Every structure is written in C-alpha cells, then in structure tokens.
Fold each of these.
Amino acid sequence: MLGFLKEPVVVTAKINVNLVALTMMGLMSRLWGLCYPRAVVFDEVYYGQFVSLYMKRIFFVDDSGPPFGHMLLALGGYLGGFDGNFLWNRIGAEYSMNVPVWSLRLLPALAGALCVPLAYQILVELHFSHCAALGAAVLILLENSLITQSRFMLLESILIFFILLAVLSYLKFYNLQKHSAFSGSWWFWLLLTGVACACAVGVKYMALFTYMLLLAIAGLHFWHMIGDQNLSNVSLLCHFLARGLALIIIPMGMYLSFFYVHLALLYRSGPHDQIMTSAFQASLEGGLARITQGQPLEVAYGSQITLRNVLGKPMQCWLHSHTNTYPIRYDNGRGSSHQQQVTCYPFKDVNNWWIVKDPGMQQLVVSNPPRPVRHGHIVQLVHGITTRYLNTHDVAAPLSPHSQEVSCYIDYNISMPAQNLWRVEIVNRDSDTDVWKTILSEVRFVHVNTSAVLKASGVIGASLPEWGYRQLEVVGEKLSKGYHQSMVWNVEEHRYGKSQEQKEREVELHSPTQMDISKNLSFMAKFTELQWKILTLKNEDTEHKYSSSALDWITMDTNIAYWLHPTSGAQIHLLGNVATWASANAAALVYLCLSLWYLLRRRRRIYDIPEDAWQLWVSAGGVCGGGWAVNYLPFFLMEKTLFLYHYLPALTFQILLIPVVLQHLGNHLCRSVLLKSMFSALIVAWFSSVYFVYCTFSPVTYGQPALSPTELKALRWKDTWNILIRKQ
C-alpha cells in the first residue's frame, strides 16, 4: 500500500520570468519610500476626511462617485490601526504619529504596481509577441504620472487596476471560448470579468464607459457565435445566459453590496446627513434620531409638527413664521398684504412648529382616540407661537411676483378675508386612503381657494432682504406650472398636542416628545435615496489653480504641484513622461491613418496584409483605441472641474497601443533585413529616451532628492508647467 512512497513527489510549475521580473520592478517603483513625504499630498486632504469618517462610523455623501474606492482606502487605515483622529484641513500638513501613512498608501501603490504585469498579459492575450508585451509593461513601469498617482492615498491607480483586470479577464475568457467552453477556467475568467467591472464602477463612474465597451465587444462576439452552425440553439442559449449572469447580474449585485456595506458601516449621524430626507436621517444613530425617537407615527387633528422641505438643497429648511410682517411697500414699489411673514428657515427653532387644525372645530389638541389626517383631507395650519393661520391670496410674493404671497393671516378689518384652507395630498401614497405619517409621508399642501401649492422658492435661489432676516421665500405656486420637489414637505418633529391654553402650549412646544415608534428604512429605500443624491448632488465647481481642459491633456500642457517641502526645494508634481506621451499620440495617429488606408484599399479589394494580421490589428484597436476613446472623449461633455489625473485611464490604453503599432510596422512595413535592423535600432534608442526622461523627472516624481533652483528651472520643459521655485 505504501509503495508510492518509494518515489519522490514531484511538482512541476511553469514560471514566466518576464512576468515575475515585471511584478517585482513594479512593486519596487511604487513602494519605494512610500511614507515620504509624511505630509498631506494634494487630494489626500479630500479622501482622508472620508477615511476618518469610516473609522468613526459617521455617515457621509460624496458626489464624486460610489463608495467602494473610499472603502478600500479606509481598509488600509483599518489595517494600520488608524483611529480617524486627524484634521484633514491643509495640503502639506504634517501627519501626526497616529496616522499609519504607509498603510493608507499601500493599496493604491499595490494596484499601481500590478498594472505593470497586467499590461504585459493583455498584449499577450491579444496575440502580440512577448517582446511587444514586455515593451508595453516597461512603458507603464516608467510612466512618471502613473507612479506619482499610485504612491498616495488616491483612487486613480485602483480604478486603472480594475479596468485592466476586467479587460485581461475578458480576453482570457474569449481565448478559451473555442477549446474550453464551460470549463472551470472559462467560468473563472468570465466571472472575474464581471467582478472586475463591478469593482471598477464601484470606484468611479467613469469606469461605466469601459464596462459598456466590454459589453459591446462581448455582444459582437456573441453575434458572431449566432452564425456558427456548429452550435445548437441550446448551446447558444446557455452561452447567452452565462454571459448575462456574469456580465450583468453579478455586477449589479456587487454594486448593491458596496452600498450595503457602506450603509452598514456608517450608522452614525454626521454633518452630511442634513441633505438626506428626514426618514433617512432618523434611521441614523444620533442627530435627528435622538429627536424623533418616541414620536407618534400618524399625524392627527391637533398634532404639533415641524414641516421640512423635501428638496433639501442648497440647504435644508423648515416652514417658519414670526411676528414680523411684510413691508407695506417693497423696494421696487410693489405693495404687499402687510400680513405676518412666512418663510423657510434653515435652522431648528420654536417658530417652526405648526398645529394641524380641523376647520370644523376650534380645539387645538388631539382628541382621544386621535383622529388621523388622511390624503385629501382639508386642514388649517396654525402657527404654534403666534396662533395665526397659514394663508395665501391673490397678492404677489415679494421675490417671485408671478407667484402668490404666503402669510399668517392678520385681520385688519379690510376687504381681505382669510383664505386658510389647505388640502393634504400625500405624494408617495399607496392608496387614496393613506394616513399622513411622520417622516415617511411626502405631502403637498394645495390651497382650496386658489389651487396654489405651498412651495419653498427660497431653496432654489430666492432669499429675502434684511426685513425678512435673509430667510428663504415661501410662495403659493400654481399647479399648472408643473411639479417640483420644492413643493413637497414632510413632518420631521411631531407630538400630540395636549394644551388648549396658549401659554401652556408654548411650554409644550419647547418640551421633548414622549411616545415611542420605530421608523427604520429598508436597505433598498436608503440605497435609492443615497444613489439619487450621489447622481444629482453637485458641489459648486470653483476654478482651481491646477484645473485644466481635456485638450490640455493630449500634449501635457499642464501639470499639478502635489506637494512642496516647507524649507527645501523638494517637491512632487503630476508630470508624465514626455517621450511616452508624445509616442502615444503618434501611435494613435499612425493607427488611425493606417486603419483608414487599409479600409479604403480593402474596399477596392486590395489586401495589403494577411487576414489574420488584419483581424489582430482590428481587435487590438478595439481594445486599446476603444479604451482610450471611452475614457477620454466623455470629458468633453462634462461640466465639472477637470484635472490632469482624469486622463490617466485613457493614457494607459493609449500606451498599450504603442507596441501594437510598432510590431505592426516591423512585421508588415519593414520588409528588408536592413530596414528591420534600422527599425530595431530606432526602438532601442527610443526606449533609451523614455528611460532618460523617467530618470530626469524622478526627483519631482518621488519628491527626492531636493533640487536647486537652477535644476528646477531646467525641468520646466514647457512654459505652461508650473514648477515651484523658491526665491533666494
């Protein structure tokens, strides 16, 4: 039985030395001196804030994209034992000892390093020579801008890694298609394609364009499969379902999971949750949840409520009134009703409280049992402190003359009767008999007499003058002008009123609520709201010293100063390898011109290159040229502040195109031995120039050694580059 022990157990493994060497060099180039500088570098001041919030479990919203990339950066902080206690308020600020700088920068650096072997393997899977693949990897290795971007707590290197991984995985899957369909490795690479696409989109939404490119390539390949008579209908259906599962269903599920983990981690209230709805805020620990815990759920006649405008931007605000009246005449000469002002106030205040009154009864307390208000019911809204009724009439609003003024009615014994009846319309109701609920119901108040809708016009730009204390305007808007979120309100704070006397009621309005009710939102409700906020929330785009246009990136007419040593001339800049960028542009131009030439010639049935070489040329262009296009051209349609680092994903694909073009030229245009020898010599000289430029700009890539003013001036190869030189 033990006879097998007589022979040694032998394990044979194939090791691609090129791949191992490239991986090691990539790691060395990205990890060397990773803790230097021990100071906040450029956008680390931005991403570091989110890492600290993750460490403290405090909710935040970042309009730049989904949360997966932020979570990866936070993972680095967690592994390094970061407690989140650091004030991210200034570029160049020295990190305190509790900040694990190496750990925070590790994952972006690893992602950047692994892009080097990924580039090699992509060219191999595209069926180019190992020499061309090695050239592509070396170009990525020696690209100064990619090195700089991957050595700090930034997201671009992680984004590029997942994009390249998705492309490589799909190419490996496709190459296994003919001989190993539905094998274990076939499934592995197909599933990894979907996973990598989901991760890329989870880092930044720009990856959606690469994802769509891969879906288009997969769709084209499947279209060709349909014409294969050797495949049965059942087999085609299985292929279709497998691709649908791996490339659509799984990425969607993973995308949802990123938000699930994000929301599970960030369960505490913080400064960002004010832009969310009251229901979302109430689901967080602390903040509004402390206030709303114990509130009754159903709004009844006699309820004391605060009404928050649902739009919530540019700031949250609550329906408010105070004893001051509108001026008799405005500055432009128009007259007002001189009634009590009604505004939308962006702070919590006792004057935000209103009482829901039954028009047919005088009492301002909740009966026993409470009589709930339902969709379509007519109510009066009584201001809690002044006891005046919410009113609107055919008088022009102070800042919006085409809308009606909203006021609290004062009886001046003139021919201006009260018009204070409002119909409650629950916008998000399930049926026409729905009860008006605290926090959960989004309602409109439609004026019975004029059909105007209560609207906070101030939240979209109208702030009252000094006589209105710069509070936000509230108007009555005609329904015919369309629907807008500024017309929708929800009850945020709520209690059942018990005091009929005004003085007792004022004390009651200041007191905390007593009853208990749970208002937890489902994950899908929270996801939908957060996703909508991310897509629609836009910070004010301000001109930045280092912002640029997409046209500037092609010729690298711009740079970004990432860090400057406080005393020496040491500094770090986002600057690319000039030789590589120029070559990438030339390769793209040559590819375009040759493709057009070949297409014209093929139209005339003249075939300059073999069919397999043509298919190789087209497929490489679809991946590399298509990858460049989808990661670059969309920026021309974006209204946002742009920086040079936005070009790096597109640049990576353009670099991959260089060895594609060089191999094609060497194989098909250099026919004689002399031409091939000269071409090889030129390539060696060109690679030497790439290495020379890399070494020249290494001091501003790694931030060391410090350069003298003369040496820094010598690096200003373009007048548009902003190299920082201290005055002597």
Amino acid sequence: EIHIKEPIKKEVNPHLLPGELLLCEASRVYKYVQEDGSNRGTYGKLVCTNFKIAFLDDDSTSDDNEPQFKNKIVGENDITLQCVDQIYGVYDEKKKLLTGQLRKYPEKLIIYCKDLRVFHFCLRYTKEEEVKRIVSGIIHHSQTSKLLKRLFLFSYASAAPNTTDRRDQTVMFDTLEDWRDELERTKGNVKYKAVTTNEGYKVSEKLPLYFVVPICVSEESILKYEGRGIPIWCWSCHNGAALLKMSAFPKEQDDIASQTQKAFLDGIYKTISKPPYELLKTDDLSSSLPSLQDIQTAYTRFKQLFLIDNSTDFWATDVKWFSLLESTNWLEIIRRVLKKAIEVAECLERQHTNVLLIEESATDLCCVISSLVQVMMDSYSRTKSGFQSLIQKEWVIGGHSFLDRCNHLHKSDKEEAPVFLLLLNCVWQLVQQYPPAFEFTETYLTVLSDSLYVPIFSTFFFNSQHQKDANTSGESLKTQSGPFRFLTVWDWSVQFDPKAQAFLNNPLYAEKPKPDKSQRKTARFKHQRQLSLPLTQTKSSTKRGFFREETDHLIKNILGKRIGKFIYPSDELPSGFREFYDSWHSKPVDYHGLLLPRIDGPEIKVWAQRYLRWIPEAQLHGGGTIATAAKILDLMEEVQNLQVKMDEEHSQATSGDVHSVPMLRNSARLSSLFPFALLHRQSVKPALPTSTWKDLEDEDDLVKRDDEFVYLSDDML
C-alpha cells in the first residue's frame, strides 16, 4: 500500500542564495519517509543547483511548525553538493552505485550524505526526460572532479555582500600581532619569537605567512630546507615547557642527503636542548599512531552502521551491534589518540619537558594531538572563542589540507581522511565527561562538523593559507573589481538566529573554579552503555535492545576492577604514565585546570547526537541530554525574568536587552533527536523470529520491559 500525499498544485520555487543558479529540476518526484516499508511519503519537486540538491513540497513554503533550531543556509530537505557521499539507483529492487554516464536510469534514487542523512526518491511517476536530466545533473555536479574556482564558495563570495560579524573575538592568526599576542598570553615570548621569514611565501607555500620558532633558530636555518626540520611552536605550558611540531624529511633519499639532514637536525636539537630551554622529547606520530589510511578505513566502516535505509535494517544490526561496532576499530583509534595526548600532557606538566611532534607534513596528526593537548591543559581553549582560535591556529593557518582530506573536489580518494572529524570526536569525549569545563555544547561540535560541507565559508575549503591568498583575487559582481571577501564559519549568525545560537552555549559552564573540594565528582549526564564497547569478548546477548539501559550493576563493578588488565597489558604502558593518570583521577576536578579524559574501556563512547540524530528508532521520547538542558534553560529564563523585575523595582526603569535562551517548554514532547529533528513517530516495532523471542523469554522482567517494543503477529505465534 502506498500512502500518497497529493502532488502540489501551486508552483514551488527554491530559495536561491546570492550566486546560486538552478541547473536542473524534476516534478512529481516522490520522497519516501523512512518508515516500515509502507512507502509513505510526499510528492514534490527535486532540484539541483550549483550549491545544493533540494526537495520542495508544499510544506517547503510554509512557516508553520518551523523548528527552533533552523539552519538559515541549509534546510531540512537540502543537501549541499559537498555533503553528498554516495548515490545509489534501484533497478528491479536491486541497488547499484551510480557514477559517470548511465545507460539506464533508475526508478528510485538513494542519496547517502556525509552528515549521515539518507534520502529516498521515487522517480517512477516522473517524466522520462526529467529523470534523465535530474539524475545526470546530480551525479555530475556532486560526484565528478572539479576545479577549485568552480566551487560555490567563489560564486557566493562574488555575489553576496560581506557583512561578517567580527565581534566573536576569534583570533584568526593571519597577522604577526596575533602570534605575538598568543606568545604573550602563554608566557612563551621569553624563549620563542614570531618570524616574518615566509612573507611572500619565499620559504614554503605550505607554511603560513607568520609562525613562531625558538629564538635561537636562525633565518638561514628556516630557509635551508623550505621549513623542514624546523621546530615550530604550538603552545607553552605554565611551567615554561613548550609543545612544538616539525615537518620531517622524506625517508627515501640517498645516503649523502640523509647524512646532511641528520647533521642539520642534530644541530637544531642541540641548540634547543640548552638553557633557557627545557629538555626535549621527540615523538614521531607516523609510527606511534594509526596511519591516515587506517583512520579512513575505520571511519568508512563505522559510518555504515548509521546509514540506515529502513527500520528492518536497523533492527537487524541490533543483535550484533557490539561486534559490528568493535570491528570498525573507530573507538579504538579515538582511545589511542586520547592516550597519546595524555602522554604529551604528562611530559609537559609533570616532567617539564618540551615535546616535539614529528610528522611528514606536520599538518594532520600533529594538528590533532597539539589541539587536544591545548584543550586538556589550557582552559582558554575550552571557551567558544578560544576553541575557534585554536582551530584557526593549528588547522586553518597551520596548513591542514581540508580540500584534500574532505575530498571536496573529488580529485583523489587516496587523500581523503576524516582527520578533523577525529579531533571533534575526541573533544566530544571530553565535553561529555566534563560538561562544566566547556563553554560550548555537543550541539556546537555537531554543527561545526556539518559546516565542513557548507561551501559558503572559506574556513574548511582550502589546503593552506597560500592557496587561499592565491585564489582570493578575482572579479566581484558587485564592484567589478577587487578581491573575494570570503565568510568565516565562526560568524554563526550566518547559519542561525540568536535563539538557535543559544543551543551552542553551555548553560552549566563553570565560570570560576569551585572552592568546595568536596564536590569531587559532578553529577554526570546519564549515557547509554550501548554507545561504548563492553570489556569482554563474549558474544553480546540478543536480549538487550539497541538503546536499552544495562542494569546489571554487579557485572559492571566486577568488570570495572579488571579494566586495567584488559586495556593495558603490563608491558604496554610505562609506570610513570599510569601513575600520572591514576593520580590525577584520584583528585578533585579543577574545571579551569588540567583535564584528563577517562580512556578505559567503555568510557570511550559513540557520539550519539551526531551519528544517531536522523534515526527515529534510536530516539528517547522526552529523554536524553536535551531533557536535562530543557529544564535548565527553563530555570534560566525564570531567573532572568525575576532579575528583570528586581531591576525594574530598583531603578524604576525598563530593563535593556536580556540574553535570550531558547524556549523549551514541555520537554516531555521533545525527543533525544532534538534539536536536529522534531519529535518523530514511535519506533517501528520489529517482528522478531521465534528463536529470538524464545531467548528473550529467559528473563521475565525483560519480557515485560520489551513487550511494548516487540510486535508478534498471530501467524508468527
């Protein structure tokens, strides 16, 4: 049975941004609502522009039931061309990956997105010519390689007025003054200096215009090997120890070149190992952390767990969820990266030793580790403006190849790797373990990850500062001359109105350290244990649902005492690291001091909001962290209203602007998918095979609990 919503009769036109052009469209396209196979959905128009793919139905023009957390650039049924991951066609109920020229056009189109949305379109009722145009257009504009200047980024920059808001206090690190201010802030200006050697990019196009090196390093040394072999300053600890990074020399070289470079490095090491510098420890990340290829492979497997076509597929994976999650190796990579960051923090904090991170280009894993260390050790990096400044310093200006790693131009799959996404996953672990320590929320991290694929901001669409500068000059449609004026992603007003932006700020952020040390462990949000891997290798029981709360406290306690044996064999970790880790966790948490993530076993969790927000089956009605946030925000609003009344009584004057907080009345109506999706239908009740049902009957209380989730038809019984 097909539940059909009548085709729209009035003409619906897409909302086009400045510089956006309509390329092709198809009418009478049927968009499925992912339900239980009943093929329910709605008719509308499918369009493709030079910016996005969009589905327009009669609800697209209505302002009724508009979500509180609406993105002003990308709508609920919009997919930016850079956000398209893979496109499949359905031929006679068989899925086939669509690439290049097609001989036969599909009757159904399935689009998998990089933000893990899945769209199903039926083209059976669409005119044949329109099907050819729209399918060919979507594949061509979203999957084939393109030139940099063909990105919508340039069309938008040349057509849109630049009204960017620079009041956000984010430091861009594109001037010498920014680097000098950072040196002064971290007290690193005694031993390190900001240099202008690379002005005009005469040293290297991969290095930024300005960067910081030890005072003893000469300009000749920087110029000798195009910046390779030079320790570049990242951050200074309160005790004077510094975090440095270095671009390594190529490994495959002749003996004479290798000996010359080795002598050069020895000279550099000796220079910065003398007073006033601390001892130096080098760490080659290419040998101590997974390769970019390993990271890409793990994430590719991991994201498949969340690209769900329908309810049947969802519940089919539930039975083997633990083994599937473990086989991806994604959580293990997160744990290894966090462990490496703790090792570096231990050298800086306890051993007062400089740490030099080494990598081939020093723009991938170096960025991850240096950023994590600063988030853990510098409370400024846990504020919103501080974190944004950190991303600018280490990633944008630091030369991370966003264009290649995100594969925005579809040039080479070999270069693709979710390195920045790995950082956000690691930071999320800290945010969910220590909520009061961060000024921003997990929602902030989620929309930041989404912004990777929105090509109106220059932040994540260049490989280096040089590439951006080289492509900034161009013709503007407004002025007929002058450089492009790109937007920065840090101006959140471009994507969200003030009411929505309030979701990015943490109302529980601890402005000052609490003097009461009896508050050792703060109340933690309740997390689903199924978002982390169990500690044993035993087969996971089929009696536990995908999001069922584990209640066997005895087993938890027993396993908890054995965590160290499972995670850290006796020969894996030096005793100093374990001592440092255990010692810190035995003391009260200072939310403005050093933060060490818990990395043992199940403490490493799946980032539920990002990966499960589009899956109705995974929602908790009236639950999740959003229910807690709703109560807090309601309380904040009440306090603010009382403050306004008190001010009015005292001053006999009307109060000025009051910082707005989102209205989240009646949180029972919300689900854990909020604010990215409104309240969805109840989860489709799976029809379980008889054998599975018999397994469930082993525990009476579980049968009663799961009875509302399991539907057994008469013929099955």
Amino acid sequence: EIVVNDVNFVRKCISAESSQGDLWGRLICTNFKVSFIPQGPPPKQKSQLSHLLLGQHDISLTCLEQVVTVNDTRGKRKVLGSNQKLKFNPTELILYCKDLRVIRFCFDEAGPESAKKVCLAIAHYSHPADLHLLFGFEYQGLRYHKGDLVNGSTPRGGIQTPVFDRPSDWDREIKRTGASGWRVCSINEKYAISDSLPEYIVVPVSLTDQDVKQHSPSFSDGRVPQWCWNHRNGSALVRMAGPADPLTQRKTEQKIFTAITKSHPQRREVTLSDLDKSLPNIQDIQSAFVKARQICTLDPFEESEERWLSSIENSRWLEYVRTFLKLSTEIVYNLDGKNVSVILLEEEDRDLNCVVSSLVQLMLDPHYRSLNGFQSLVQKEWVMAGHRFLDRCNHLKKNDSKESPLFTLFLDCVWQMTNQYPAAFEFTEFYLTVLSDSMWIPLFSTFLFNSSKQCAQLLQDFSKNKAIPQGEDHTVIFPPVWKWSQQFSTRDQTLFNNPMYVGKGAASVQNGEVKSFQRSKKAFSSTVRISSTSQRNGLKGEEEPLQRRGSLVSELKADFSPVKDESPSERFFRDWFSHPADQQGVLIPLVLPSHVVLWKLFFLRWVPEVCIPQGGPATVYHKVSQLVDQIEMLQGKLRQYKGASPRSTPVPSPSGPSSDQRRMYFKASSPDDPPTTPNILNSSFPFNPVGNLCPRGVQGTPISKFLNGAKTWLSTETLANDTF
C-alpha cells in the first residue's frame, strides 16, 4: 500500500449543525483506501468490531459511490471522476459510499493546493481504468512472494467452503441431495461451449456430452440448462437461459425437457417459470434501491419522519423483496407440494435466476441455512453460475446502466427469513451485513469478476506479470471471501454465530415434553385437522385469543383459514402454516406487507439520529449469547464427568473451555457479578455510527415535532382507531 497524497489540518464533520465533536487530523489517499488519522489520543472505542484491513475512519476506494467537492464561498459543487480538473479550491469534500455511509471533510485550516490534490487523487484512484489496477492484484502478488498465503487455512475448525471449480465438489452435492438421475459433465472444460458457465456442470444422465455440445448453440451464450438442486422426492430445480435462435428453440427445448423428465423417479412433466415476465428488471431494482438509500441516509429525518414509512414503501424496495419471496414460495410448492421439476427461465440466466434459485434452496434445504452451507450456496448459484459482479457492483464505475444490487436484494430476502425464523439459521444479520460490505473490498476473488472464465483469464495474466508458477492454485493467489480470518479476528467471527440456532437433531420443549424438531413425513392431503390445543404458528391455547386490529394472528387467520373453493397451492400453504414450523424442514416466509419490513441494521446503521443507545436487537443478542455460553460451559463440565473413569474423581475446569474456543461473542458472567449491559451496545452494534455525517447533533430520533403537531388522545381506544 502506497500513500498517493495527503493533507494535514483536516476537520472530519460529525454534525451538519455545529462543529462540536468534530475530529481534526490528517486525510490520506493510498492506492487502497481513503484514511483519516485523528490528532491526539483516540477516543474510547464504542464498537468492538475491529476490521483487520480497514480502520474505523477508513474507506476502501472501491466502496466510493461519489466524490463531491464543494466551495462554500463561491457556491460551487462538483462531482469528480477520473482525470478531471478542478477549477476551484475545495472547502469541503463529501464522500458518498456504497455501504451507505456519508463522510464529510472540511479544509478550513488546510492548504488549498494540498486539499485540491488529495481530492483529485481520491477521485482518480476510485475510478480505475482497468481491473488489474485494483489494489487486490498488487497486494495478493506481494503476499504470495512473501509466503504469507497458505492454502486451505481456515479459522473455523478446518471446514472449507467448496468452490465448485472441480468435479468432486459437484459430485458431493449430487450425492448429498440424492440426485441419482444427474451427472457431472466436463464438456465445458477450458470454456469450450460457454464463456459464462463453470467448467463443470450437472446434466441429466440421459444426455451424453455430445448431446450437450450439440444443444448449447441454441441457448444464449451457450448456457445449456444446468442443475441446481434435487428434492428427496426426485423433483429437480434447473436454471436455463433464453433461446439464441427462437426458430430452432422448440425442438431443442423438447429434448432437454424429456431428459429432465427421465431424471425424475416418477417421470413427472417439468414446469417452466419465466422470471423475466414475473419479476422486476434490473433497472427497476436499481431505481428502488437508490430511492430507499436516499430516504434512509440523505433525507433529513425531521422533515420526513411523519411520512417516513410511506416513503420507504413508495420506493418499492420492500415491494420487490416481497415479490421475489412470493415467487420463490410458488416454486417451493411445485417442488415440494406437486413433486414436479421446475426450470427457471431468464434471458441470460445470470441475474434473476441467481436470486430465485438461491431462495428456493434456502427454503427447502436446511443445509444451506448453516454458515458453511450458505457460503457454498452463494459460491454455486452466484459466483460459479456467472453473476456479473463486476458490472452489477460497477467496480470500475464505467457503466451505470449495468449497475444493480441483485446480491443486496438477495441478502435482504435472506434477512427477512432470519427475522421470521430466528432459530432456523446458523448465521446472524451481522454476518449478512459484513458479507455485503465485503463486496467493496477488492482483495477477494468472490465479488470481483463477471464469470469464472474472466477470473481465470485475469488471474493467469496476473500470474505471468508477477512471475507466479502456472500450476499454482488460483484460490491461493487470490483467495475467496470465505476465509474470514483475513478480515476479522477469531473472536469477532463469533458474531456470525446465532445463539438461537436449532441445528440438525436438536431438541426443543413443547407442552412440557422434550421433542425433536422433525416433522413427520406424510402424504399431502386436502383436509386439515387442527385440535384446539394445537400450536398455530407458535401461538397455542384452547380459546382463540382476542385479536387486535391488524395483528399477525388476524392476518394469518384471514390468509390461511379453510375456504370452499381453494386451489391446491392454497391448501398446501394453509396446511403448512397450520403446524409449528420445523426448523430443519421446509421454511415458507410470510409475504404480506406487514411481514416484510426494513432491514434496519443494513439501511440505518450509519445514521446517528436513529441509533438507540443500549437498545435494539443487539441487547437481546447479548442476553441470549450469555445464556447459550453458560449452557455450553455446563455441557462441557457434564461431558468431563461422564468421560471420567469410575475410580477417578473428575475435577471439572472452573472456567470450562478457553475464551478462544467458545462460540459466543458475549461470554457468561460470573454468578458473583451483577448483570450489566455493555456500553458498546446500541441498535447499530457491532458498527459505529459516530463519524458518519449527521444532519443534527442528536442521537436518537427526536419526537418533539411529532408530539407538537399530534392530536390529544382521550383514551387508548381513540389511539388504536386513529389513522396516521
């Protein structure tokens, strides 16, 4: 990493209203990041999440969305790009970041020429002319020659995420899902038939390599239909690109469909789902995200708080999240309820298919709800399937029309499911958020390229330039993001662990009895019998509780109560929602507008105005983590007692496992210590909003304006019936 330019006596603005609390220091532009080094002793760290590559005041150059210079005295403002000239001396620099931060620097005391040079340097280095100019290539090349890269090293007990760049990874997936009618095909080795497909794909057993090669020209970019996943009943999930030549397509499709039908044990016909007709396009998704980002990070809350939720809804972001979740549940019904194979059709098979195929597998297969399983899902359905991360993330900032947050949309959909079924996922929303942030750190191969071929070609050129032997493994030279030890300490990685996760074979207590989380497999029936003492979506009781207007219970009752002329799909969903959710079985999210909510940690974590000190989900996470840590310590002591020989007296360790070996971030407190809530906890935990631009110097959204204009409610009944 080299310092390109720097300037001293810079003020980092904390509030837009006054300079109270602002930080003074040195602003540096390197070939990797924008860094601000405060003068004097560093303030007490309010967040314990420590990034190994980026400091609290650092921003990766790839993370910069816009570089804006301002001259207050002349009333000028300019958005800077690469190799642009600046005709005025800037008094301010505002950095708009892709992770939704807004950072403002003032040059009150800084030299005008130095300030101008550092602004131009930041703009230039954040707009690389070529992918090879990204810092990651230089960094990984030097690390290789220093011997810092170790193949296969992982901090999580040696479990390595499969990359799906070799036949053995696909073979294991076929065996795991019981897909006996499918096989690994190597016809695309050296990218012989398609530039965007992986070298190894899974095809029906009845198709020969020659058949696949013959059919490939009929599909866009030679992307023949490829297998994604198999249900235990034999139905398969397949993804397919649109026709290259519509005139000859029908004959080819019929042969492919026949082969997929033969792969099903009962020879069931396939169902085709055209995603281009059912879902918003990438431009609509980008537009909705930009509007939601504007509302959450740029618009003053004081001016919009009375209609803030309406503004979020009008952005259509949540509507699109619901749309993707709803369509995915319909695919789940076909695979699980109707026992038919489904082909996901998209013109290029590289955007919408990635989202839907991943969500469907997440709903159907508990393996993908584990941390390692989820990472393998992203690797399989996004990275190796040829999602255009380089274009959709706009890393080179060359073509805004191709930019679209498909992967962010997917992570939001996943978060909606974790929010509704918190015990079904091994990972936390902290993990999903840092995974999103990792897209903007150009040191990992996962989110940098448009396809595995582009990755292989660029790494080959890179290896030649850096004198790296040809036989060296690419994952060693340019590692995937899944080696989290490159970004976080072992302790910080424990923030990924969900303390409420119910793993395979775990037990729960229902009605006073310990029961396993296994739903009995039964034939689908059109009749549903529910006893008065049964649980309905986690609510139990002999009498129907009094329902508040608009409550979850009343909405579920309206949606899933038996009706006369309901369709088979409606019966399927009503049957599913009438039983307690099996955390290790099929999971179907609720998709009404009241069920799909804003992902606050992602959208609002950098906004000091809405940060709740000592509040938010982190406070619950803290308590539950301590309880789980205490339980695991007691279990460890019990194992020591059980494992001791009959003649010996076991002496359990007073502290249990060492701190480094324990799974939870928050450790159980001693019985002698009073229960306390750490000062670092707030609704933005483990992130720190201090340092991000705040329109007002107040933490917590003030309600004075709302109360001043509010009506006087005479009773709680009046309050309940009032319309906001």
